[in-house]
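Page 42, continued from yesterday. The earlier attempt failed because a stray header line got pasted into the input along with the sequence. Redoing it now with the clean sequence only.
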Amino acid sequence: MINVLLTGGTGFLGRQLSNALSSNDCEVIELTSGIERRRIDISNPFDFELSQPLHTIIHAAGKAHSVPKTESERNAFYNVNYHGTRNLCKAIERLSVLPKSFIFISTAAVYGIDEGNLIDEEYPLNGKTPYAKSKILAEGWLQEWSSRNQITLGILRLPLIAGPNPPGNLGAMIKGIRQGRYLSIGKANARKSIVWVEDVAKVIPVLAKKGGVYNLTDGHHPTFGELEAAIATALRKKKPYKIPYWFANGLAKAGDMIGDRFPINSDKLKKITSTLTLNDRKAREVLGWNPSPLLSKIDLLV
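This time it went through. Structure tokens are written below.
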């Protein structure tokens, strides 16, 4: 039995990781403290105790899925994603036995681009948002820390994560199509990298042994049109009504003036209509990554 400490176990990805590891001869330990086993806020320094040595740390806790409007909200990303990572590492250093490996769940946002084709791991880390910058800082800290402590470090730069009842933009698309309120824009031919959540869990044991920095994708990079059609079919709904790009662009400009109350703005429109895909060849060659195309999982997705 391998002991694994998992942070972020109550999140969308964390729950899948916990379930997959538990079914593969791993003892999954949540990050808690005290007699009452209260959950730890990693944004503040902390200590924790364990009855048995840890083999692997999987750090999936993080702040995402929001656009900060104030300085306090911007700082929250750094407090959790960067300082939280440092606090975790410092607490680990105080254990009697250090773990053999540390796996960090990062993001494709570190590349800082909205458009590109087959971006690989050597691409510069130009992310400018608090989310991206805090993850970049955490990656840098972990690379130095793991080297100093002779711990195998694995970093996964993930795109959009798909799975049953997904959060975020994919969940909003499914909800909109189910309710007949989703509009397809233009040719809907922009491609996006996506990864199936259970596939991420399956690659963890190999990553823990080999370490390294990897992009993961489903290998197909479906277009918005393919996703829309597949989701509509799975839900037994009509394909979404299409609107021309020029009309959507007018709505986006109106959204720029109206603000968050409006469902679309120029930034969202650019992301919807621009191709952004990652290259996962390194993971295939080193980790034996063999992902499931998302379109084959649509029935599970909705």
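Notes: The first strand starts at residue 2 and ends at 7.
Reminder to self: strip header lines before submitting.
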